Amino acid sequence: MSYQQDLIICRELGERHGESRALNSLGVALQQVQRFDEAIDAHQQDLVTCRELGERHAEGQALNNLGTALQQVQRFDEAIDAHQQAAARLTELGDHHREGQALNNLGTALQQVRRFEEAIDAHQQAAARFAELGDHHREGQALNNLGTALQQVRRFEEAIDAHQQAAARFAELGDHDGQGRALNNLGTALQQVRRFEEAIDAHQQAAARFAELGDHDGEGRALNNLGTALQQVRRFEEAIDAHQQAAARFTELGDHEGEGRALNNLGMALQQVRRFDEAIDAHQQAAARFKEMGDDESRVLNNLGTALQSRGLWRARKGKSQSEAKGPSDARSDAKVPVERLVPLIVDVPSGSSAVSAAVATAAALSPERPAKTEVLALAPADEPSSTQADLQMENKRWGRRRKVQEPVLSDDR
């Protein structure tokens, strides 16, 4: 790695400023190849050097980059401290652009430890700095992250506005990846306020953007979310297709968690159209995926139980209807049992899940009374997952494993 050679040369010559620059560049390069512990060491050495030299500006950059590396290894409290110090240094120096970067990164770290109100404040400040400077790309990132934080505190209308603004900024710049992330997050917020047709449109656009880019992970998440929205408006055949496509994308990527979520949601949609054998198979596959990963598969097993129970009830009622049919009423033997006569089947509702309606949680067609809940995938906010009331699981990547925020921004230009 050439930065390592630069570092050796600078140290041999006693060139401390060059040493600092080499350490910073080395740390950034190490983060890009996911060698985060080594990156942390490089940024910490850089920080010490900057402080010894009294280089306050370089110190701010070193702190910000250190924070991004710490986030990657889930040392969030240390990352928060680093980003806060970075923002303070850069504010003192009047470097509003890098201040905005530090604030946005601070917000993503705060979201990870569920300090959402503080995260909202940080993202709002970051968006304001970038707007003042005319940096619409980073403004879009900050707005998208702001929306994910607002969703977490159930300020959905504000979240919708933030995601819409973010999508608009990215569209203006021709950034289809950023636009896809913002649109997918917009769709999850719209589902929360039961604006399902608009949510469907947002998820469809997001899936198209990711497909154009060959981003199968983003496409899979958007398709899975699309399926949950379609279930909300009882377009089950289309939902089945969306979940099947999502599962296929995750299978191609070897993403067993995403595949399990999509298969579980597929099973719920199949139950709604009485395709119980296929639903049972989907839930069994989903449970196997979660078990392979060491995840709790109890929710999926509960859904599997409802599918088995539904199949049994359906067959029993059908058989009874046929055996009772006599004479002129023979035509009734092929008639379907009215949906409203089926016994409601309770499905596990995970805490903080994204909900498809209570109707999805039952074999009877009951009117949903609660707003849909979604999982928000933001740093992945810069842009993660949600399950539905019927244990439908939405995607937005990486909170815990799959919550989506924008990745932290590195500073490598000294």
Write a brief caption for the model.
The chain is mainly alpha-helical and 414 residues long. It has helices at residues 2-13, 16-32, 36-53, 56-72, 76-92, 96-112, 116-133, 136-152, 156-173, 176-192, 196-213, 216-232, 236-253, 256-272, 276-293, 298-324, and strands at residues 385-387, 393-395.
Description:
With 414 residues, the chain is mainly α. It has 16 helices and 2 strands. The chain has helices at 2-13, 16-32, 36-53, 56-72, 76-92, 96-112, 116-133, 136-152, 156-173, 176-192, 196-213, 216-232, 236-253, 256-272, 276-293, 298-324, and strands spanning 385-387, 393-395. A two-stranded antiparallel ribbon has the order 1-2. Helix 12 (216-232) runs antiparallel to helix 13. The two termini are 19 Å apart.
Distance N to C terminus: 19 Å
Specify the overall morphology.
elongated
| Count of extended strands | 2
User: Count of helices?
Assistant: 16
Spell out the helices and strands N to C: HHHHHHHHHHHHHHHHEE
Catalogue the unreliable spans: 329-393, 396-404
- Order of strands, main sheet, comes to 1-2
Give me some keywords for this one.
16 helices; mainly alpha; 414 residues; two-stranded antiparallel sheet
Topology:
Elements: H1 2-13, H2 16-32, H3 36-53, H4 56-72, H5 76-92, H6 96-112, H7 116-133, H8 136-152, H9 156-173, H10 176-192, H11 196-213, H12 216-232, H13 236-253, H14 256-272, H15 276-293, H16 298-324, E1 385-387, E2 393-395
Antiparallel strand pairs: 1-2
Helix pairs in contact: 1-2, 2-3, 2-4, 3-4, 4-5, 4-6, 5-6, 6-7, 6-8, 7-8, 8-9, 8-10, 9-10, 10-11, 10-12, 11-12, 12-13, 12-14, 13-14, 14-15, 14-16, 15-16
